[in-house]
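Researcher: We are triaging several targets before committing to wet-lab work. For this one, the compound of interest is pyridoxal-5'-phosphate. I'm pasting the protein sequence and the ligand SMILES. What I need is the predicted three-dimensional arrangement of the protein with the ligand bound, expressed as structure tokens, so it can go straight into our comparison scripts without reformatting.
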Amino acid sequence: MKSPVLHLVNGIPTGLVSVNDRGLRYGDGCFETMAIHNGRVPLWQRHMERLFDGCRRLAIRCEFDAGDLSREAAMLIGEQPRGVLRLTVTRGSGGRGYAPDPAESANRIMSLLPARQYPESYAADGVSVLLCKTPVTSNPLLAGIKHLNRLEQVLARNEWVNEYAEGLMSDQQGNVIEGTITNLFLVHNDEVITPGLEQCGVAGVMRAEIIQRMSRLGFSVSEKNIRIDMLKECQEGFLSNAVIGVWPIASIDGREYSIGSTTRIVQQEIKTIFPVND
Ligand SMILES: Cc1ncc(COP(=O)(O)O)c(C=O)c1O
């Protein structure tokens, strides 16, 4: 079943954007990568909140709202049950050099992509993870935002080919922050912990969903500084992302972890909204 339209730029079916677009020039914008399941985006609301919050913090002027984006998403998805929706919002094409034009309004690019097939063993048996050398830079003005500047993740992802499923990145003080495309959860001294994201990192929508659901289940999740050394002391860990769901960690830099009951509970919970792990 094919959807006839693959891209919408400002609501118009085309794959073309201006060469002057500030997203292309400076990475001046935000993006969302959303899973389509049963023809819907299960975490739509959270994606919209993060997107518009990022635009507000970057003072990107949007002349559209979540309702417009929802209609455009429905147009693109058509009758496709599964897939991925990528939404990019840039500051537009105006301004001279870095100085933005205050009158300019944002461009939005929405694309429908096929769902990427990861090996079933990733969710079932866990993934091998590399501790990357490429650091994430601290900057509280950008922390949490899923902005378009992803060079650090590109460099980190270039540290391996196929030997690992994911790489963990740390800040320059030696605190583990997140994966290249995922957020990190660990069980340490029987406590569920996840890195705080006040200085850097992407505030994942799946991370937020997991924290909320775990607290409903009676677990408290603490946001903490997690030193690289602490990884050795952890009983179990898992990675989260809005498209992949949850991957248990089988090893970090060759050090093995068993998949614990907390990870399995979270996977079961996520299946109810998002059965990607089937
Ligand atoms: C650097 C980074 N961290 C975390 C995540 C997870 O975010 P989400 O749960 O919104 O997919 C992503 C997603 O691509 C990411 O690129």
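Researcher: Any quick observations?
Model: The pocket of pyridoxal-5'-phosphate is lined by residues 33, 153, 178, 181-183, 202, 204-207, 240-242 (CB under 6 Å).
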